[in-house]
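hiii so my PI (J.) wants the whole complex modelled not just the main chain, which honestly fair. so below is everything: two entries, each one labled with what it is. i double checked the lines twice but i was tired so who knows lol
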Amino acid sequence: MGKARIGDVAALAGVSVATVSNVLNRPEKVTPPLVDRVRAAIDELQYVPHMPARQLRSGRSATIGISVLNAANPFFGEIVSAAELAAVGRDLSVMVGSSHESPTSQDKYLDVFEQFRFAGIIVTPVSQDLERLRRLHARGIPVVLVDQEDPTRVLPSVSGDHLAGGRLGGEHLVAAGCTRVTFVAGPLAVPQIAERLQGCEEAVGDHAGVELTVHSGPGMDIDLGRVAGEEILRLPASRRPDGVFAANDMQAIGIMQAFLAAGLRVPEDVRMLGYDDIAFAAVAAVPLTSIRQPSREIGRTAATLLMDPAAAQDVPAARVRYTPELVVRESTAGAGVARVGSPLPAG
Amino acid sequence: MGKARIGDVAALAGVSVATVSNVLNRPEKVTPPLVDRVRAAIDELQYVPHMPARQLRSGRSATIGISVLNAANPFFGEIVSAAELAAVGRDLSVMVGSSHESPTSQDKYLDVFEQFRFAGIIVTPVSQDLERLRRLHARGIPVVLVDQEDPTRVLPSVSGDHLAGGRLGGEHLVAAGCTRVTFVAGPLAVPQIAERLQGCEEAVGDHAGVELTVHSGPGMDIDLGRVAGEEILRLPASRRPDGVFAANDMQAIGIMQAFLAAGLRVPEDVRMLGYDDIAFAAVAAVPLTSIRQPSREIGRTAATLLMDPAAAQDVPAARVRYTPELVVRESTAGAGVARVGSPLPAG
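here's the output for the full assembly
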């Protein structure tokens, strides 16, 4: 039991070892009846293909590991899908873990990626501590950052310009006439969030009479957005914001849900702005103004960089930075703001 | 280079082998200065922890593999998040792959899970061919199906009752007065889609004068929903449906986007119904009626079953089946239908 070797399988199936190997690794290259025969033999002998041994010979497994903040956020979902599409062309699989902004979780995923000798790692770091990633890179394991950059230019990166995006959003709310702006952040240890906030602060700081408050929280999903929205609703009306800039669209949608349920009107009572421009933003109850990041392009480029051996050697490392784009929709429309970019009638 | 062993790391760091092992596997149990010292030694010696060897000793790695149709669909995203939450309590990591309804992709993920000796597998199968999964289970690898059942009761499963859900949706559209219903399916090889369609057919078939057409497509995301919506819009007005039942909410949202952009009114011109009740359904441009499945409960229960050694031995296997719930919102409201369950004002 469990002691069968690949040669035993080949002998029982009456095929070569190479054919068994093909059935295990490239079944599409083997005719279906042969696949069935080999699988029956594998089954009968309870043969377990020994990846670790094969791996040590070839050095690396045919798998890319991705660690993102939250794969259920369509922004990261699109990045992952695009990376999958690029990887499948090179016969690589993609495995994804969600760190949920936790350094411990990220470390666990990196443990798995490293110990199984994955072919490469794409990661949205949970903090500015990139030491472990740089060490992996130094050992020859390809690493590409997404949604964040390495200030030392050791690690290649593909990301949006979060400072510019934060500025765009802040300027837009001020231009729309907001005087009490609340930036609803997730965990401020996440550098891209801190940068978006900094950009917003710079934009708002240029305007006397506009007040900026920060509402930080433990995470950035719809549920936590709803909680943030309810907290804002409990403020006395005089202290409530007339403009809300959420650090991502997931939060913005949760906040909007809380506001609308309480009878607040968007944009009449409060203008709202998200970040990422996920597909749901355009079809939200009130179509959501957002800062667009090209998620698919980011995922595709990250995978391409990862699989390009030349890119891994470049010093300084490749740094692909996308300029974000303001997409104005109903949620901030009104006095002083022309509504463009929305294919939808007003909600 | 690369020949260092764990004892060399321990000697250089001046700690025990057990401490090095803790730093590798349970760093939270080691003080930060010690972690730093051990990591510096690992770095200096370019030591690569040898998971395969350790794994063969312990039998299984501390990782659960999940293969779902599309991790970027919040329905599966929630299942995965809940499974992660349940697994982290047992010190297990969760790695996710998206099969995108492709048997080849699913097979590749199963190869990875099997070859790396993952502790268990949660899978939304792409088809009714469960033979390989039953073989893995027979070899002692825990396997739990989500969103689909094993008719032979060999594999445990956690899913909704798709036939009942399809019936609920079909009956609802008929009760709302629809006479030309289009069921927008994804790939009909996916059993849960075929079952939802069958339920809808049963419900509509009971009513003379109601016509049901099926619109099938290669996938079930927002983009493909938009494509399906545009195809429906190209039909002559007399052949256009007055009720659309989409096989999941992602598709429904894409279809709605196409309809609204073309000036069609929902629900006045066409009533729309999705499936899953993802969080976005309630905050869609027109809040979307949907068939609710308890995604978090499904993910949590699947992980719990997977980690329960007793459940793995049960014959017949555990089968947890949730009764779906119709959540009526604006997208199907109007004559004959009371609108309930929506916290939002009309879009």
